[in-house]
Write a structure and sequence with these properties.
154 residues; alpha+beta; Alpha-Beta Plaits; Ribosomal Protein L9, domain 1; three-stranded antiparallel β-sheet; 23% strand; metal ion binding; metal-binding; 2Fe-2S
């Protein structure tokens, strides 16, 4: 996990979970820009706008939390992108099939490996459907480079 912080918001990035759909890049390019270093500029927009964008991250690779003394109303920071979302919400799991992309699992979820070991726990996880991911069972976005299309959409 990598953290990007100012006095009002902390953006947490879990690169191993990113499915690279570019949702953040398109929604808020002044904050999320791969051509800049660091690629996350927490001063590029109001924290409430950053929160709304992170709440749309399909893989859960981007999360947020509020530092002590933040000006952000805590009620506006309770979305699925909140780092502590799983602990504050009842267990409801949704699984969404993305067209020509991964399965998106939303809700408190634990992914276990072959031996029963915990691979990942979170509120949003993307699972590979194409079989090309270098990070299986998780999606790494390679399906778009391979121009993968399923034989039949569900």
């Amino acid at each position: 996990m990598k953290n990007y912080q100012n006095e009002h918001i902390i953006v947490h990035w879990f690169p191993e979970l990113c499915a690279h759909p570019g949702t953040c890049l398109r929604a808020l390019p002044k904050v999320f820009n791969l051509k800049q270093r660091p690629w996350v500029n927490v001063d590029g927009a109001e924290p409430e706008v950053i929160i709304k964008t992170i709440d749309q991250c399909p893989s859960g690779a981007l999360r947020y939390s509020l530092p002590t003394g933040s000006k952000v109303n805590a009620e506006s920071a309770k979305g699925v992108g909140n780092l502590n979302y799983e602990n504050a919400n009842p267990p409801v799991v949704k699984i969404k099939v993305l067209s020509n992309g991964p399965l998106v699992i939303e809700g408190p979820v634990v992914i276990l490996g072959i031996e029963g070991e915990k691979l990942k726990e979170g509120s949003r996880i993307t699972l590979c459907r194409c079989g090309f991911s270098e990070n299986r069972p998780f999606c790494d976005g390679i399906h778009s480079k391979k121009e993968w299309k399923p034989d039949q959409e569900i």
